[in-house]
Amino acid sequence: MKPPPFEYFSPTSVDECLTLLAEHGEDAKLLAGGQSLVPLMNLRLAAPEVLIDLNGVDELARIDRDDGELVIGAMTRHRDVASSELVREACPLLAEAAALIGYPAIRNRGTMGGSLSHADPAAELPCVTTTLDAEMVVVGPGGRRSIPARDFFAGHFTTVLEPSELLLEVRFPAHGGGPGWSFHEFSRKSGDFALVAVAVQLPGDGASAGLAIGVGGVGDRPWRADAAEGLLAGGQRGDELLQQAADAVGAQAREHGEGHADNDYRGHVAATLARRAFATALERTGR
Ligand SMILES: Cc1cc2nc3c(=O)[nH]c(=O)nc-3n(C[C@H](O)[C@H](O)[C@H](O)COP(=O)(O)OP(=O)(O)OC[C@H]3O[C@@H](n4cnc5c(N)ncnc54)[C@H](O)[C@@H]3O)c2cc1C
C-alpha cells in the first residue's frame, strides 16, 4: 500500500528544519529512518501533508564525548550506536541494547532520534535513556532546552516534544568501566519488540554509584524499579538480596496494568529477567 500524497522537503541544516516546522505546523512530520513513520503512512494511520526529511542534515549524525558525557546526535543509526567503540567504552549498556533492536535492515536505517520521538513503550532506547538518566536536547523557536528522559515520555507513542521542536541529540552520563551492566529482554521471537525488557547498571560489592534498574514493555512508558534500587543501594550483593530485588522488579511490573500479557505473567518474566541481568552485570564488575 502506498502513502497518501505529501509535499517533501529536504533541508540541510537544523535552522532550515525549524523554519519549515514553523511554516507547516501540525501538518508536517519529520522523517528520520522512516522505519516507524513510513509503515504508519502506508497503513493510513498517519497522513502528514508535509514531510521534512532529516537525512541531509549532517550535523545531526554524530557520536562524541563532551565533558564527561556521551553525545549521540538524533540521526545516528542504531547500527552505528551498536558498533561504536566510543559507545562500548563510555556507555556499554547503550551499545548492548542498540544491538537488540529489530533486524539488521531496521538498525541500518532506524535512528536514535526517531526511536525516542516515536516513544514505543516496548522499544529498547527509551528504556535505556530512562535507566541511564539521559538528557534529551531539543531545539525549537524559543531555542534549546534539555529534558530528562524520565520526563520526556508522556504515554503510549507520546512525548513532551512540541510540534515546532525537534530532538537534536541525547546526552548520556559516561560510566565507562564503572558499574556492571546488562540488558535482558524477552520477545516472542528474535528481533521482535520486547514483551518485557530489563536494563541494569549494577556496581559491585560495597558500591552504589551508578546503580540503576529500568523496565520497558510494561506500561505506557519505561520506568525505574525504585523499590529494587532501594534494596541494592546499600552495596550488598548477596544472592538472597539479589533475589529479593528481582522479586521487587516483578512486583512493580505486576502493578502496571498495560502491556502485551497479563499482570502475573509479566511480573514473573520481569523478575526472571532482572535476576539474569543482575548476574550478568555482577560478573562484568569482575566479582
Ligand atoms: C519490522 C520492524 C521491527 C522493528 N523492531 C524494533 C525493535 O525490536 N525495537 C525497537 O526499538 N524498534 C524497532 N523498530 C522500530 C525502529 O527502531 C525505528 O527505527 C524507530 O522506531 C523509529 O526510528 P526512525 O529513525 O525510523 O524514525 P521515523 O520512522 O522516521 O520517525 C518516527 C517518528 O519520530 C519523529 N522523529 C524522527 N526524528 C525526529 C527528531 N529528530 N525530532 C523529533 N521527531 C522526530 C517522526 O516525525 C516520526 O513521528 C522496528 C521497525 C520495524 C519496521
CATH architecture of the largest domain: 2-Layer Sandwich
CATH topology of the largest domain: Uridine Diphospho-n-acetylenolpyruvylglucosamine Reductase, domain 3
Report the order of strands and helices: EHEHEEEHHHHHHEEHEEEEEEEHHH
Largest sheet data? 5 strands, antiparallel
Textual characterization of the structure:
This protein is globular. By secondary structure, the chain is α+β, with helices and mostly antiparallel strands. The chain is 37% helix and 23% strand. It folds into three domains: 50 residues, Uridine Diphospho-n-acetylenolpyruvylglucosamine Reductase, domain 2 (2-Layer Sandwich); 116 residues, 2-Layer Sandwich (Uridine Diphospho-n-acetylenolpyruvylglucosamine Reductase, domain 3), CATH 3.30.465.10; 105 residues, 2-Layer Sandwich (Enolase-like, domain 1). The chain is built from twelve helices and 14 strands. The strands form four sheets. The chain has a five-stranded antiparallel beta sheet with strand order 4-5-10-6-7, sandwiched between helices. The site of flavin-adenine dinucleotide has 30 residues, from strand 2, helix 2, helix 6, helix 7 and helix 8.
